[in-house]
Design brief:
- By secondary structure, the chain is α/β, with parallel strands linked by helices.
- About 40% of the residues lie in helices and about 20% in strands.
- The radius of gyration is 22 Å and the shape is globular.
- The relative contact order is 0.16.
- It binds 1,4-dihydronicotinamide adenine dinucleotide (NAI) and magnesium ion.
- Magnesium ion binds next to helix 10.
Length: about 400
Amino acid sequence: MRTIVSLPGDGIGKTVLPEAIRVLEAAGFEANYLHGDIGWDFWIKEGNALPQRTIDLLAEHKIGLFGAITSKPKDEATKELSSELQDKGYVYFSPIVGLRQHFNLDICTRPCKAFKGNPLNFIRKDGKGGYEEPLVDAVVFRQNTEGMYGGIEWTNPPAQVREALETHPKMKKFKDVPSEEMAISTRIVSKNATYRIIKAAFEYAKKHGYSNVTVCEKPNVLRETSGMFLQTAREIAKDYPGIDLWDTNIDAQMMWLTKNPEVYGVIVSENMFADITSDGFAGLVGGLGFACSANVGDEVAVFEPTHGSAPKYQELNPSIVNPIAMILSACMMLDHIDESEKAEKIRKAIAAVIEEGKVKTYDMMKIRGGASAIDNGACTTQQMTDAIIAKL
Ligand code: NAI
Ligand code: MG
């Protein structure tokens, strides 16, 4: 039997992860779930939101199903540390970013596929007084470990950093800015990681029958880093004669995704740009309640909804949040471990519930969240799961 490391984390992560496991079990997927400690409680109690024992569990069992964590700004985080850990030099870092970096989970996949009948789907006017609802089916590949989110940044950069940067002629204009008034964030990309993410995008397109791969960058301005993306994509594209390589600029892509989103298939970008494009496309297919993701490295893979811990709903009983993003993330896990048949079965059950339109979480009804949502006709988290299980 498979062993899966279950990492519920904080807030609604603790609500939606058990719902996904219920669906997996109902679909006939048998596994042994081992709990891994992660998140805010462990920051407060141990000064580490990602304890070594959790890293060891994942290193041993390779597959993680993750809910969500709560992150707070540095100062707030330090204040909430338990009293005996105060002033001992503990520094908060996000445990999900930590996992991605520790296990080099460099390939992030974020499918944004519309379910027919979802009231949150993108629509546009058809020019004849009605509207049309093109079914968006885009899959964003995000380089998950480098680029703008690589974490190499400074406020008040050390002298050597300034000296090194001053070898670039464009630094002249900052010559008189005192270091303490200067902040620097870098965007470093490596050929190897760039190759891996673009190759993964093309392989996915080939396997799933997409006719195009779009590199969404900004090579006219970010000549070096976006330039490397585009150059690498052109090299890789030669090996995929049936798949068109398109390139778009990130800003224009944001405009086009509300104009003709259905023409895009697989999209690949650096870390931050893919964060932006994947949220943009997710918004066309239902938003956070539907956005799932996979973080995959050579050895370890972690599957998670893209939403956070939604603290304002964590205490609500019964819960009202949408479990579908988490359940779809579990489906991605099944795909990864060659259990695609069960994944398809679950996705079909979700599609059937949505198309029938009887059971809807609050986010699908455009009503306010909170306890009143149920009185206004929204289902509970558990009822949505039950409806999906009933369709299996
Ligand atoms: P969030 O994703 O938790 O919530 C944003 C909005 O979406 C809220 O209105 C929330 O109620 C709603 N929402 C989220 N998930 C939903 C679901 N499944 N069904 C229905 N509605 C849902 O993001 P926010 O509020 O910016 O951050 C809250 C905490 O989560 C912060 O501490 C943040 O750092 C953390 N976070 C963690 C992430 C992760 O674990 N990967 C990702 C994003 C944020
Ligand atoms: Mg994001």
